[in-house]
Amino acid sequence: MLESQEIQEIIPHRYPFLLVDRIIELEVGKRAVGIKNLSINESFFQGHFPGHPIMPGVLIIEALAQVGTVAILKMPEYNGYLGLFAGLDGVKFKRQVIPGDQLRLEVELLKLRKTFGVASGKAYVGDALAAEGTLKFFLERMNPAQ
């Protein structure tokens, strides 16, 4: 299990854009399961939507990507890299995610060839599927000065 501080040692995301609180399962280079606990204090709930807060779908997909990135960047050969979107396929949103929900983010790496990869992601609230899709990404070496 990885806590927030350990996650931040692997991926460069920080508040308010770090969307993973904990990694509860990890098979380096293969799969990861993460948790995002949602409270009304999330900055995006202020404007999406006032009086009817819903987590934006793009942020659910970003949270999935962050979980998948942890599984890849824990591989020694990708130390110092950054994961970036190359595309999305078959993304579907099945359930609204609201304050008080706990989002379980499951990502499985399907293909990784040098600096390009494909992963399958599913986000759940309890046993209910909230979102799913295929994430395509590329890996880029981070500038050490950043």
TrEMBL record:
Gene3D superfamilies: Hotdog Thioesterase (3.10.129.10). Its main location: cytoplasm. Coiled coil: none annotated. It catalyses: a (3R)-hydroxyacyl-[ACP] = a (2E)-enoyl-[ACP] + H2O. Keywords: Cytoplasm, Lipid A biosynthesis, Lipid biosynthesis, Lipid metabolism, Lyase. GO terms for biological process: fatty acid biosynthetic process; lipid A biosynthetic process. Its EC number is 4.2.1.59. CDD domains: FabZ. InterPro entries: FabA_FabZ, FabZ, HotDog_dom_sf. One of its GO terms (cellular component) is membrane. It is found in: Cytoplasm. It is an enzyme of class 4 (lyase). Signal peptide: none annotated. Belongs to the thioester dehydratase family. FabZ subfamily. Involved in unsaturated fatty acids biosynthesis. Catalyzes the dehydration of short chain beta-hydroxyacyl-ACPs and long chain saturated and unsaturated beta-hydroxyacyl-ACPs. NCBIfam families: fabZ, PRK00006.1. This is 3-hydroxyacyl-[acyl-carrier-protein] dehydratase FabZ. It comes from Desulfosporosinus metallidurans. The gene is fabZ.
